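Read as chain and fold; for instance:
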Amino acid sequence: MSFCQKYNCMKEERNGNSSMNEEMISQICFNVFFQKPSMVERCAVGWGNFVYIVACVGAKYVFRCSGQCNAYDNSIFWLEKLSSIEIPVPKVIAKGKFEEYEYLILEYMEGRDLGVVYSQLEDEDKKAIAKDIVHIQQLVSALKLENVEKNWSWSVFVNEMLERARGRIAKNGYFEIEKVERLKGQMGQMEDYFSSVKPIAYLDDISSKNLLIYNGRISGIIDIDWIGTGDMLTFAALTNMALRDLGYDTDYVTYILEEMQVNDVQKRAFLFYTLMYCVDFMGERGMRFGDKTVEVNEQIIDRLNGIYDSLWAEWRYSK
């Protein structure tokens, strides 16, 4: 199974049962800590999971719950692996099953998502965070990956991402399929570069989300269900797209690319990946994940179309 197929499976095939509630979380808390919680608050994040912040026995914890069997085996594996190389990830407190749900209790880490605090960051903060995140990615890249597919291909991953976006856009009907087909038509220009990409480990899902910032510095990395295999530049491209979608400057991304010392070919790949994530964002609009539907309206449609057009102009100019 390719990475993209795993990504689809984890994000789209999780049980959508919406019956998980605070009383059930309270009961899990009692079973684990032998006390009822003093506070249970559901987080707005978490499309594939029910995520709660829980206060009990004088501390805060993060509860993640899923209707999928063995939902957190990969999470636990990677959290332990990353912790062993001193990546700031939450500790696993407990795991188990309650009724039809799997649950994972994690250490609560202070901080808020980068996208939440970005407008409050000074330029020096952005530079420091960029330097630290590139260092973290370099540590992760040294991990030895097991069970890499014999015929692993980065081009296959890129194509699968675009095909997934195409299918979602066609199904939801809010954007033009032509935008994906136009980008697919450019893959041949990048084939030599894509062929050079090796199956190297990196954190692929840290952008405006999942990267916690506290007092202007990285305090933790959360929501790790898997790690990426391939081109680390995609995490920078995802961040680039996320910040654009939020209406922020992309100075932080510029500092990431400077820290990575990218060359002209890599800069072009980075721009291609940003377009790839743009159509991916388009495809997600209107989709339902669990008990949540990704918001879509005329303003969002216009914004994403505008971002695509701007990126496409950059892409054409970069030739």
